[in-house]
């Protein structure tokens, strides 16, 4: 399965579905930019990520973006990457 990106009706919640890899980051950046201030990322249906995506998500969180329904393994990986970069 590849990545599918969906937005809710008001465009504030960006829902990611499937496998998120570095090659998808440009499309994700575009969706975030077009969503106005403070969009939310919903990772409820994300199955696989790579290290570039984890670093991207961690950077967005540090900028104040909220990440919803993040699986424990992705959350732990984000925290480890953030600690490593301090």
Task: Describe the SSE topology.
Elements: E1 4-7, E2 13-20, H1 25-33, E3 40-49, H2 51-62, E4 66-68, H3 72-84
Parallel strand pairs: 2-3, 3-4
Antiparallel strand pairs: 1-2
Helix pairs in contact: 2-3
> In angstroms, what is the radius of gyration?
12 Å
Global outline = globular
- How do the strands of the widest beta sheet line up side by side? 1-2-3-4
Nearest-integer average pLDDT: 94
Q: State which percent range the strand residues make up.
A: 25-35%
Order of helices and strands: EEHEHEH
Question: Could you explain the architecture of this structure?
Answer:
This protein has one domain (4-84): 2-Layer Sandwich (Transcription Regulator spoIIAA), CATH 3.30.750. It has 3 helices and 4 strands; from the N terminus they run ββαβαβα. The protein has a 4-stranded mixed sheet with strand order 1-2-3-4, covered by helices on one side. β3 (40-49), α2 and β4 form a beta-alpha-beta unit. Helix content is 40%, strand content 29%. The chain has helices at residues 25-33, 51-62, 72-84; strands at residues 4-7, 13-20, 40-49, 66-68. The protein has 86 residues and is of the alpha/beta class.
Short characterization:
The chain is an alpha/beta fold. It has three helices and four strands. 40% of the residues lie in helices and 29% in strands.
Keywords, separated by commas or semicolons:
86 residues, alpha/beta
